[in-house]
Amino acid sequence: MELYNKLLQNNKAWVEKMISSDPEYFSKLAGGQKPPVLWIGCADSRVPANEIIGAPPGEVFVHRNIANMVVNTDMNMLSVLDYAVNVLDVQHVIVCGHYGCGGVRAAMSNQQFGLIDNWIRHIKDVYRFHQKELDAIPDKGKKEARFIELNIIEQVYNLGKTSIIQNSWNKSKSPFIHGWVYDIRNGLINDLEVTVNENNGLLKIYQFDALN
Ligand code: CO
């Protein structure tokens, strides 16, 4: 209970700190949000979206799940994406994974972890798409790091395959979708340089015609 009570105390202290630097801080935020960025990240406690990019409240719309996956039957992710793109009009969508990701590590193993194995299956599929490259990396740590990067890149393309993103691209070449990997060992983000804002980089079968 001590830790639990501390959380509520911390909240009061934070409110006081914010008000002391700007008495209107909360009334301004209460007026509405217009974040320019949607963040799709891992649920890992060591990768807090706002904190690692110095973004204050109001700047980042956030969706997190195990291993920063974009699963096209995930109603939660699709709802966040549709709202972010079509209502908030975000200019950037960032898929941010991280080295040492437990979800990817689990996907690399043959161990069972329970219900989550069915989520992890989507990550195993990424391994299958890149089996040749990954099988050729003998070092386990390097293989895991590359698997993590490839998983992020696949999720960037999974976003691009959604009708939500393609309709927005067809209208305005926006948003830009980026793939980032965060290094929990030194706090630095590495841009994987897979930024896309049009569907012509996708395999033809995934490209939607513009809506009339
Ligand atoms: Co993770």
Detailed description of the structure:
There is one protein chain. By secondary structure, the protein is α/β, with parallel strands linked by helices. The protein folds into two domains: 1-32, no CATH class; 36-199, Beta-carbonic Anhydrase, Chain A, CATH 3.40.1050.10. The protein is 46% helix and 14% strand. The chain has nine helices and five strands. The protein has helices at 2-21, 25-30, 49-52, 75-86, 102-108, 117-129, 131-135, 140-160, 163-172; strands spanning 37-42, 60-65, 92-98, 176-182, 189-191. Strands 2-1-3-4-5 form a five-stranded mixed beta sheet. Helix 5 packs across helix 6 (117-129). The longest helix is centred in the last third of the chain and has 21 residues, at 140-160. The protein is globular, with a radius of gyration of 19 Å. It binds cobalt (II) ion.
